[in-house]
Amino acid sequence: MSEDILTINDDLSAINAENEHVDYSEKSLQEILDIFSGMLENEDHHELYKNAEALKSAFYKNLNKFRSAAMPESGDGESVSEDTGTEDRQQERAYADEERRFKELYAAYKADRAEFNARNEKIKEENLAKKIEIINEIKALIEKGDVSQSFPDFRALQQRWRETGPIPASSHKDVYETYQHTVEMFYDLVSIDRELRDLDFKKNLEIKTKFCEMAEKLADNKNVIEAFRTLQKLHEQWKEFGPVAKEYRDSIWERFKAATSVINKRYQEYFETQKEKFKANLAAKTEICEKVEQMLTEEIKSAKDWLKYTEELESLRKAWREIGPVGKKYGQKIYERFRAASDKFYEKRKAYYDNFKSTMHENLMKKTAICEQAEALQDSEDWKSTTEAFVDLQKQWKEIGPVPRKKAEPLWNRFRKACDTFFDNRNKNSNDPSITIYLNLRSKKALVKEIKAYVPSGDEQQDRQAMDAFVEKWNGIGYVPIKEKDKINKAYFEALDEKFPFASKESKRGAKQQRHAPVSEKERLIQLYNRKEAELATYENNMGFFSQPSGSLIEHLKQQIEAAKAELARIEEQIKELENKENSEA
């Protein structure tokens, strides 16, 4: 009869390992070092083997978290404190010392474990030699055939067999089957005292009956893993005891096998359920990895966006921790993928902040230079050229990025003071409208760029309407400096010819609106409304050239805008009155 004994497979080992691990994620780096060091000092190999990798994972997870938390942050997207550099370097050295200490402990553990495993393998080989020797001694008793002398020796050999420790797994099956066969030969083939043999059979039957009862009771254990592991121990003990009487051998084994089948089935169902959970958990963790990897493809340009993405990554890390295990086969691989993507994200963030500080310093230098230029020009009485120079400086100022927070407001106040000084002097001492003329030139240049950027639809009627809108806007902009007039007009008509080749020169000059005189007061008012609306758009466009409205020049523009809005309201009211009159007459 063959008694096939179950063994714990790799999948069970994976489940047990994940169920037995202690959660060290809430421990500090020093606490983890103390725990690891204590285990090494106590030489508790079982606890070390069970917890070493969990300690390692928790240590590096917390180390990365603390390093990330120490990374410089920017709340408003414009500045990073410059006073934390020394403190950050001291903290980083502390983290480096703790990491070095952990690597030393981990290396000591690996060396100790290798030595421990080597000793165990040596002991197993020694046990194998002992058990083979016991089998040979039983065979010698069988060949001797003297029952009265041999049976006490046989009992002693059985006891030695049970006291001998484990042997290498590769020899386990063959050695135990040989031992069982040899013992059965001793009982069945050697003529011994039946009463003595029957007593031994009876004792073995009682013990194996108790094993059956214990195996059957395991069906009530709700912890499937615990029940399965206990069953393995019962199987190991079952093999240590000799046979029972022939009439009971099949029945007792069938009973034990039936109890084994119940536990086996429960475990298999549990394991299948675990595999589905592992699969779902792996899918969830893979999705998180993909989200982090997608972050790496994003072009993050501001500290505000970096803060948003960092918070999103921390949320994903939290979700990761809440997802259960994925099994031994994929656990390390998926974790390494997540960790690699996270590390790359933080490396990019660090590079951004390093570059951000450098950029802000460059911006500070540029804006300081603009302030110096403005201060050099603020007392100039060359109103035309200096006005244009200040407008250019204001445009440059707007195009330069942020500077350190502590420097931003004083620097802006310095620049504004120089601008206000010049424009106040200009408006007190000159009635020259050059500023408006130069701003009109800028408006026309901007309109030419807008025409060049236009993409024709292919529908002539729709494109003609777009062209008419450009022409009307052009005609609504006021005079430009004489020396620039021909140049800007040439650029304007070339842009129209390129985008609207189907239109006549007259329509491009706005002659279409001038060919027909208004046939009614209502049409006259509508045309007047359109012209005033174009004037208002010009004024508002001119206001856009100033980053911070201030000074008497800005006040003058504001007055023109308010007057234009009032005129538009008045004309609109007249048009409504005419429409009401037309409706009543109809």
UniProtKB/TrEMBL annotation:
Residue ranges of the region described as Disordered: 70-96
InterPro entries: DUF349
Organism phylogeny: Bacteria, Pseudomonadati, Bacteroidota, Bacteroidia, Bacteroidales
Compositionally biased region (Acidic residues): 75-85
Species per Swiss-Prot/TrEMBL record: Candidatus Merdivivens pullistercoris
Biased composition (Basic and acidic residues): 86-96
Residue stretches in coiled coil: 522-584
Keywords, comma-separated and alphabetical: Coiled coil
Name recorded for this polypeptide: DUF349 domain-containing protein
